[in-house]
Amino acid sequence: MADQYLMTADQKDLQAMVRDFAEKEIIPYNAEWDREAAIPAEAIQKGYDMGLHVMIVPEKYGGMGLDETTYCILREMLGWGDASYALTIGGNTLGFTPVEIAGTEEQKKMFADIIVPGALSSFCLTEAQGGSDAATSLTTATKVGDEYIINGSKTFVTNGGLSSAYVVFAMTDKEKGVKGLSAFIVERSRPGVSVGKKEDKMGIRASNTTDVIFQDVKIPASNLLGSEGQGFKIAMQTLDRARPSGSSAGVGLCQRAIDEAVKYAKERVVFGKPIAKHQAVAFMLADMEIQTEAARQLVMNSARLMDNGIFDTKLAAVAKCFVGDIAVQVTCNAVQVLGGYGYSKEYPVEKLMRDAKIYQIFEGTNQIQRMVISSNMLR
Ligand code: COS
Fold first, then answer.
1. Whole-structure pTM over 0.90, yes or no?
2. Which of 74, 143, 232, 336 is the most buried (most CB within 10 A)?
3. Measured between alpha carbons, how far is 34 from 36 in angstroms, rounded to an integer?
């Protein structure tokens, strides 16, 4: 588990609390939520009751106001419990961060007043024709008097069907390309906002992923974040800042795979001894540990830098990329340690392997991360 040696007493207490929550309220339901492709509202409510949905929202707006390091420790624990739950309850990271970066005091307060009492929010950037090519938005925002009218459709929106507020990236000036994208707060309650298709996914099945459609949605001009044309920068800065905590859930997923594999390897006897005592298996466990520990340190390094006011785009991308790549390997090896049972839904590791794959895809694919890393190296 995260950085046992350097954690403060408060961090250890919070970690123990979230671990206990994961053991009692998340892990027993892993298979059921995966099968049903949903997390029951009562289970999400339990997370709200603990403030897990607003860990990074500053205390002055009613959130927990945790620093990034502590937040990552707790997101790791939630990811250990279930990647879908960590993503669902952590959804306000991508929802609130753009407001935190570019919003006025009034906008921060207004957004926090929606989510703090117990609600989720979503980051609406991706469109069907442009996932990685984030600047090619077909969604438009047209200014008419004191209002903007938003038209368009976003896809693969995390918590799309659950959220009460959205941060929507839309073109205010198509001619300007990337410099024509702007960011807006759009409340779910606005007429013309609707939730479209829900994705039937390979992994993180219980995480709600949907299309969100905006049809002639009128919002006050005061819902614009920053100024017109700043949307792409706000989106990129948000993704930079969300990478450590998002990746820490992936580290938790790897830790869970290790824990499940170690438990099984100590119990399962072949050729007269537990398989953990056979070097072939013991070395696989060691490799899983090496990869996970290295990933954890990359994530924690980025988090600590953020706590010191340093937002290093390259290092956040390095951490995200590494976690995604090793999560796929570590969980695949966990399945291998359990052999036939690992491939069966009777044991939890096949789900971990399906869940792991998303870490190479969402919040910027690992190919995009390599573009970000190499462009920073070559600058
Ligand atoms: N922080 C701040 N500003 C950034 C930035 C960052 N991390 N990355 C880019 N910018 C700025 C640049 O500085 C540039 O502005 P200026 O011209 O004023 O300097 C502008 O944004 C355009 O940058 P660039 O030309 O590098 O953008 P590209 O079109 O080449 O695209 C990538 C950059 C590919 C990195 C970007 O499109 C991307 O990250 N795509 C993936 C999107 C994604 O993650 N999608 C899934 C998220 S939904 S959860």
1. yes
2. 74
3. 6
